[in-house]
């Protein structure tokens, strides 16, 4: 989409294609080991209209965000900014830790459009009474996963579950839910989130408030709800 608009990302394919990187010191692997691994991972998830993906197609897509993909003016008018995996540490674990794919459109120096996709987001992970605008569903034994959130300057913020996206094109607008910032005005009414590498006791607020992950166990105004959800990624912005 929009091939005329430059894309700024974090990497190009140089590392993947270099012989030193591809072998990683393992003599049992050929020079294309990393490229083949990336191709296999992308082919497992991507839909290319029935066409088979090739390594050249994947590498060219990666290079679209590289430093040499476009020649920028000193002050480019319009460009995309992409962070393909925000929360890399959690992503590499391969568990349920949240990571985010972030994309933004910058026009004349201002961010005018943003998209965040969070594949591991549990759609029942937030209390319904406080975050109904996020589209959180009632708790089930096997909650649906994945959410996408979009924001347009002057038009608000909207979210949609991944399950609503698959196979649905005719009623696209009916499935989007408008988001709003949590209306709390007091500290003990707010929900806090911290990276899983930190503890509540390491933060300044811990001297004034105790924490709990159980929303039903709050007994006084000196206790706050702590959500262990983010791994230093953009997922914290989904919460607020």
Automatic annotation (TrEMBL):
SUPFAM superfamilies recorded: Carbohydrate phosphatase
Any one Gene Ontology BP term: sulfate assimilation
InterPro entries per record: Inositol_monoP_metal-BS, Inositol_monoP_superfamily, Inositol_monophosphatase-like
GO MF entries: 3'(2'),5'-bisphosphate nucleotidase activity; metal ion binding
Key words of the record: Hydrolase, Magnesium, Metal-binding
Binding site for Mg(2+): 10, 83, 85-86
Co-factor requirement: Mg(2+)
Record family assignment: Belongs to the inositol monophosphatase superfamily.
Designated name of the protein: Putative PAP-specific phosphatase, mitochondrial
Species per Swiss-Prot/TrEMBL record: Anthurium amnicola
Gene encoding the protein: At4g05090_0
């Amino acid at each position: 989409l929009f091939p005329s608009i430059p894309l700024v990302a974090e990497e190009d394919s140089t590392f993947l294609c270099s012989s030193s990187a591809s072998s990683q010191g393992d003599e049992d692997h050929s020079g294309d080991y990393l490229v083949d691994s990336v191709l296999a991972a992308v082919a497992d998830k991507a839909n290319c209209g029935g066409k088979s993906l090739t390594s050249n197609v994947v590498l060219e897509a990666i290079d679209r965000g590289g430093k040499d993909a476009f020649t920028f003016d000193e002050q480019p008018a319009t460009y995309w900014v992409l962070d393909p995996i925000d929360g890399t540490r959690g992503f590499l674990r391969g568990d349920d830790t949240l990571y985010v794919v972030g994309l933004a459109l910058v026009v004349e120096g201002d961010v005018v459009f943003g998209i965040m996709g969070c594949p591991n987001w549990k759609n029942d992970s937030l209390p319904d009474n406080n975050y109904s605008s996020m589209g959180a569903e009632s708790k089930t034994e096997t909650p649906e996963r994945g959410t996408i959130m979009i924001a347009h300057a002057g038009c608000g913020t909207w979210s949609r579950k991944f399950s609503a996206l698959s196979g649905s094109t005719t009623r696209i607008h009916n499935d989007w839910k408008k988001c709003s910032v949590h209306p709390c005005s007091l500290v003990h009414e707010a929900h806090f989130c911290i990276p899983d590498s930190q503890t509540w006791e390491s933060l300044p607020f811990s001297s004034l408030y105790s924490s709990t992950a159980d929303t039903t166990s709050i007994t006084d105004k000196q206790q706050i709800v702590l959500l262990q959800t983010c791994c230093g990624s953009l997922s914290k912005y989904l919460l607020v």
